[in-house]
Amino acid sequence: MAGVRSPFVVVMGHVDVGKTLLLDKIRGTSVAYREPGMITQHIGMSFVPWQAVEKFAGPLVDRLRLRGRIWIPGFLFIDTPGHAAFSNLRKRGGSVADLAILVVDITSGLEDQGVESLKLIQSRGVPFVIAANKLDRIYGWKSVENRPFLFAVEDQEWHAVATLEERIGKLIEELSKFGIEADRYDRVRDFSKQVPIVPTSAVTGEGIADLLLVLAGVSQRFIPKEKLQVGEGPARGVVMEVKEERGLGVVADAIIYDGRLRKGDTIVTAGLEGPKEAKVRMLIMPKPLEEMRDPEDRFMAVEEVKAAAGVRIVADGLEGVVAGAPLLAVWSLQDLPNARRLVGEEISEIKIESDREGVIVRADTFGTLESTVLFLRQQGVPVRKADVGPPTHKDVVEAVLSRRKNPAFGVILAFNVKIPPDVEKEATSSGIKIIRGEILYRIFDEYLKWSQEVRTKTIEQILSQLTRPGKIQILPGFVFRRSDPVIVGVKVLAGTIKPGVTLVKDGREVGKIMQIQKQGKPVNEAAVGDEVAISIQGDVMVGRQIKEGDVLYVYVPDEQAREWLFKYKQYLRDDEKKALEEFLKARKSAHQ
Ligand code: GDP
Q1: Ligand 1, CB within 6 Å, residue ranges
Q2: Would you identify the CATH topology of the domain 351-465?
Q3: Measured in angstroms, how far is the CA atom of residue 575 from the centroid of ligand 1?
Q4: How far from 104 is each of 14, 207, 509, 534, CA to CA, in Å?
Q5: Whose CA is nearest to atom 22 of ligand 1?
C-alpha cells in the first residue's frame, strides 16, 4: 500500500547566518509540541510532525486559513545544514531534497556562500523559501518569544518596520540580479513566480511559525505528488556518510526515500571502483526520547525501516562506499544484476573520463563531485576528467595532456580532498597547478585568476615572437652617413621600431636596422613620437634607394600580418593597426 511521506528539507546559506540555531529552534519547538511516543529522531534528520506545527502556530494557521488543508504528515529536516549534505542528497537527474530553506542574515544580505547555495539549489531544481534571519537585530524591534512574524510586525513602531522594509527591499534587489523574483511572503501573489521571504529570528523564535506554514504551502503546491508517494517494495535511498564505528566496523548513514529496508537485505551501493554489494547485519535508529535515559545509550536496533527514514546501516561490504552513492535494496537475487547496472550507470554519469580538453576535478564524495562539475559547466569551464578521491599520478599525466591544447587546462581542482605528497611533488615538477579548498566558489575564483594569468603570459609570449608594425620618417637635414651603413635621424610616426627589423619603402625592402640611438645612447626600442638616430645595414644609399623626408615601414612577414589581423588585433594600438594596413597596401601595389 502506498502512502505519502514527509518532504525532506535542507537548510542552506552563508556561514554564521544562523542555520544551526534555526534548525535547533525548529526541532525544539517540535519536541515541545509533539504527541508523546511520536518518533521525531532519525539518523541525520529530525521529524517535525504537522500536528506539532499546528499546535505551535495555531492562530497563524487560522489567519492563513490553512487548518484542515495540509495533507503532508510533517517535515523531515536534514540535521546537517550546508552544501556538502545538500550535494550528497543527490539522485539521478535531481535531488532527494524536496525543499530548501536559504537562510540569509537580514542585516547583511546574500553573501558569497549564500549565492553559491542559491546556485546549487537552482541547479538541482529544488523549490525553496528564504528565511531572512536575525530579525531581532532590526533597530527598535520589540521581540516576543515565538510570536508569528505577521502578528509581530503589526505591533512595531513605524521606524522599526521602515528599517525592516528597507532591508527586505535590498534583499529583493540582490536576488533579482540572479534572476529571482522574491517578496515578503504575505505579499506574494503568485508562488509559482515569486520566492517567499520569511523574516525570522532563531534567537527569539519569531517568524518560525510563519516559516513552517510557508514551507507546508510550498510543499503541497510545488513538490510533485509522485515524489512524496512511497511504496512498500525494496528500499531506495542515498548514502549520506560512511564511517568506522567502534565495535561495529564500517557503517553507513543513509536516507531511505522509498520502500522498506530490512535486516538481512542485500543492498547495492557504490565506491570508487563502481557498484558494490553489502548484506545488512543491523539497522540502527535513535531511541524514542522517552526511553533515552542514558546519553551513552541513545540507539536501538530495529528489524526494518520504512520510507522516509534516516538510518544507520551496519553491513558487510561497506568498506570504500562513498557518500552521495545511491542505495538500492534487492529482495531477490534475480534482481541483483539489474540493480548493479542501475547503480553503475548512475555513477558513470557523475564521473567523467574523456580525452577532451578541460580541467581535472577531484572531490571527496559523489555528491560534491556532481555539484562541482555542474558548477564548472554553468560557468563554462570544460572538464576532462572528474572522479572521487585524492588526485593520482594519472591525473597529473592527464593534466599535462590537457595543457597541450590549452595552457589554462593544466590544472587539478581538488574539492575537500587531501593531496598525496608524491602527487604534489610530481605536479610541481611537471608545472601542473593544484587548486584545493573546501568552498566551491573560492576554488573557482582562484582558478579564474590563475587561468587569466596563464592566458596573459601565453599571449605575451606569442606576441613577443611577432614583429610589431611601425612607420618612420627620415628627418630632413639629419643624414649622418650616406652608406655602409646608412645613419640617419628619424621620427617614429606610428608603432615601434627595434634593432633587427627590416625597413621597406613603397613596399620594397631597403635594409635592416642595426642600432637605434637616443640622445647618443643605444636603446632597444623607439616608439611613436620618438626622434632617434638609426643605422641601416644593407645595399642601400641615401640619395639612391632612400632620401630625406622618406616614409619607411617595418616589414611584417605575411603569416605574421595574418596573425595580427585575425587573432591578435585587439593587442595592437590604433596607430599600429593603421601602420600595418598602410604597409600591406603598399606591399600589394609593389607586387602587382
Ligand atoms: P550557522 O553558521 O549559519 O549555522 O550559524 P549559527 O546558527 O551557528 O549562528 C551564528 C551566530 O549567529 C551565533 O552566534 C548565533 O547565536 C547568532 N544567531 C543566529 N541566529 C540569530 C538570530 O536570529 N538573531 C541573533 N541576534 N543572532 C543569531
Answers
A1: 13, 15-21, 81, 133-134, 136-137, 201-203
A2: Rossmann fold (3.40.50)
A3: 59
A4: 7, 14, 69, 67
A5: 134
Which pTM does this prediction carry?
0.82
Which residues, 6+ apart, have CB-to-CB distance to 525 below 8 Å? Answer: 496, 497, 498, 516
pLDDT, tens only, 195-216: 999 999 999 999 999 999 999 9
**Residues 452, 525: Cα–Cα separation, whole Å:** 28
Say how many C-beta atoms besides its own lie within 10 A of residue 445's C-beta. 14
Judge if the upstream peptide bond of residue 36 is cis by omega within 30 degrees of 0.
no
- What is the DSSP code string of 207-239? THHHHHHHHHHHHHHHS-HHHHEE-SSB-EEEE
Return the CATH architecture of domain 470-591.
Answer: Beta Barrel (2.40)
- 3-class DSSP state of 284: strand
Annotation marks residue 83 as catalytic = yes
CATH class of 3-228: alpha beta
CA of 21 to the centre of ligand 1 (A): 6
Q: Which of 21, 104, 113, 116 to mutate to test the pocket of ligand 1 (most atoms within 8 A of CB)?
A: 21
Those residues whose C-beta lies under 8 Å from the C-beta of residue 575, and which sit 6 or more positions away, are 494, 495, 528
What tens digit of pLDDT does each residue of 464-490 get? 999 999 999 999 999 999 998 999 999
For the CA of 24, the closest atom of ligand 1 is 7
Report CA(150)–ligand 1 centroid distance (Å).
Answer: 22
Assigned CATH topology for domain 231-348: Elongation Factor Tu (Ef-tu); domain 3 (2.40.30)
